[in-house]
Amino acid sequence: MAIEQTFSIIKPDAVARNLIGTINARLEAAGFQIVAMKLIQMSRSDAENFYGEHQGKPFFGPLVEYMTSGPIVVQVLQAENAVLKYREILGATNPENAAAGTIRHDLAESMSRNSAHGSDSLSSAAREIGCFFEQSEIFSK
Ligand code: UDP
């Protein structure tokens, strides 16, 4: 299997509840190498651009409000099959549907405040990484 990079966000609800270390420990235990990471606060235009595919949906406005409401951790994760592997340990969007043992099942507060983001494809990962990181900020061999 190919070594891939995927993009991750530890969302405002998880940062506010001091879960950065808990989530990073899960990522490392699952075999991900954290090759880039920073604590930032998204601007409104960052969030509208990042979630552009959801523009026009009823949850878009609240999603932008929530994602800009406090600090988040943005990360690049590297592993074999990283995109699918992260979606598996992340769990379904709605924590009520997420499998036991996944990040969202165990930590998320609700469908909207669902603790973490992971890219859904390699092409999304490349786009999303580019929204927040320069190549020089990514420490992969
Ligand atoms: N979201 C929401 N209500 C919905 C669908 C999505 O609040 O009905 C939020 C939720 O935080 C989700 C994000 O919008 O993580 C992006 O939605 P997407 O369908 O891309 O889910 P994901 O890829 O994050 O599982």
Summary, kept brief:
The chain has helices at 12-16, 20-29, 44-50, 60-67, 82-90, 103-107, 122-132, and strands at residues 3-10, 33-40, 72-80, 116-118. With 141 residues, it is of the alpha+beta class.
Largest sheet, order of strands side by side?
A: 2-3-1-4
Assigned CATH superfamily: Nucleoside diphosphate kinase-like domain
Unreliable residue stretches: none
Order of helices and strands: EHHEHHEHHEH
Bound molecules: uridine-5'-diphosphate
CATH class: Alpha Beta
Report the end-to-end length measured between terminal Cα atoms: 17 Å
Overall 3D shape: globular
CA gyration radius, whole angstroms: 14 Å
Supply the key terms.
globular; Nucleoside diphosphate kinase; binds uridine-5'-diphosphate; kinase; 141 residues; alpha+beta; 7 helices; Nucleoside_diP_kinase_AS; phosphoprotein; NDK-like_dom; Alpha-Beta Plaits
